[in-house]
Amino acid sequence: MTDLTDLTIAEARDGLSNREFSAVELADAHIAAMEQGRLLNAFVTETPERALQDAERSDGRLKAGDGRPLEGIPLGIKDLFCTQGVLTTASSHILDGFVPTYESTVTANLWRDGAAMLGKLNCDEFAMGSSNETSHYGPVDNPWRRNGANTSLVPGGSSGGSAAAVAARLCPGATATDTGGSIRQPATFTGTVGIKPTYGRVSRWGIVAFASSLDQAGPITRDVRDAAIMLQSMAGHDAKDTTSVDVPVPDYEAALTGDIRGLRVGIPGEYRMEGMPGEIESLWATGVEWLKAAGAEVVDVSLPHTKYALPAYYIVAPAEASSNLARYDGVRYGLRVPGEDIVDMYENTRAAGFGAEVRRRVLIGTYVLSAGYYDAYYVKAQKVRTLIKRDFEQAFENVDVMLTPTTPNAAFAPGEITDPVTMYLNDIFTVTVNMAGLPGISVPAGLSSEGLPLGLQFIGKAFDESTLFRAAGVLEQAAGFDAQPGKWWA
């Protein structure tokens, strides 16, 4: 029998339904993999007892013929999602010891549909980072290695723990969040599939906030079908989230028809950046040919304000972060560092509790919101955001989806990028999607000259994830990406 940890969510679902193995056996296999994979530092909290209890209940339901959509499927949960009774820290020292008394809507939906929790996954502190090097619990190690080398590589961020765990077969799927590319970039770096849904498609309630107008939850999985299955359970209207949109959730798995004949695919010229590596350009061109061969029509489109997206994002996101993170002060929960008075306690707690990258973004955000600078920076950035959204709306009058690279490079080594601005450039192809509130999906499409995964990204119309899945499924089949990292950590 195939190693149970090699099964996709769809394969595991079918195997459980056919009684080929039990949910407890499936959970046991992933618990063993999780323990063997601790060198990766993907999990910050393991919940094996919870996973087995969930699995036992699932076996009972499966035996009774009462299985739900994710019955018995063990999942990893990014440490940004509040989980009732389970430590939730956003990988930050300032949330030490915080055990929520409530469940995020996303995880509640997953448990409602029968999934089991393996544990909480490492991430950049408060989701601020592009490499998973800012976590209080230390960096996550990418399971991939360059050809002929054993040097550590970053898995991308902020959802690096989610991506690394899925790529390393520690879990078949994981929740993640994307504020400026934090699902799609780590998916590319690890050879996995990651979808950032339309803003408002998935509830943000119970997710530790970074930038509230940009954050959106989605899944990281090993293939497109699994992403469709997970998003089906995660999505839906939530009255507790005022930004949640009350629109029907289509059958995403049914959208994987394999037929894109007549689909109009836009190629934005502004994504051909100066200095783009030749292998990225070549993979993009190959992707275009795959889609043409499948019957799609390729159309050149223009997104003229793309060049302003990254600087505008790094004004809007820190501004919202400085507001959201003001609630962490040592008074009610998490870390408390005593002081001579309450103001001193605030200062001591925040200085000790926040890492360097979080402090940097809070300072930037506070600055751009301050008197005298609000109009010059924040208001202007929001105007640029409106122009970026308008660019997409005009382009989507003529095309159904757009195809772009996901990242400007493959995974790099920890410490290789020390300049914050250079690090921020990793999001250059992804932030526009968040600024416009659109859905985007990254699909592994090839290997770099050093043997590392590279991905291509589809961008879709608002609330049209179905077309994204349809196009992504065809690209995935054409690419035939089946490379895996060697299990050096086990």
CATH class categorisation of the domain at 4-262 and 469-479 = Alpha Beta
Q: Output the CATH homologous superfamily of the domain at 4-262 and 469-479.
A: Amidase signature (AS) domain
SSE series: HHEHEHEHEHEEHEHEHHHHEHHEEH
Residue share in β-strands: 5-15%
Shape: globular
Radius of gyration of CA atoms, rounded to a whole number: 21 Å
- Overall structural class, as computed from helix and strand content, comes to alpha/beta
Q: Please state the average pLDDT score.
A: 96
The number of helical elements comes to 15
How do the strands line up in the largest sheet? 4-6-5-10-11-9-7-8
The residue fraction in helices comes out at 25-40%
Assign the CATH topology of the domain at 4-262 and 469-479: Amidase signature (AS) enzymes
CATH architecture of the domain at 4-262 and 469-479: Alpha-Beta Complex
Q: Distance between the terminal alpha carbons, to the nearest Å? A: 20 Å
Give a quick account of the main beta sheet: strands, pairing sense, barrel closure.
Answer: 8 strands, mixed
Please provide the count of β strands. Answer: 11
- Low-confidence region ranges: none
Give a structural overview:
The protein has a domain at 4-262 and 469-479: Amidase signature (AS) enzymes (Alpha-Beta Complex), CATH 3.90.1300. The protein has 15 helices and eleven strands. The protein has helices spanning 9-17, 23-36, 48-63, 105-112, 160-167, 184-190, 224-234, 278-293, 309-324, 342-353, 356-369, 374-395, 420-424, 431-436, 465-479; strands at residues 43-46, 74-78, 116-121, 173-178, 193-196, 216-221, 264-268, 297-301, 401-405, 440-447, 453-460. The strands form two sheets. An eight-stranded mixed sheet has the order 4-6-5-10-11-9-7-8, sandwiched between helices. The protein has a three-stranded mixed sheet with strand order 1-3-2, sandwiched between helices. β7 (264-268), α8 and β8 form a beta-alpha-beta unit. α2 runs antiparallel to α3 and α9 packs across α12. It is globular, with a radius of gyration of 21 Å.
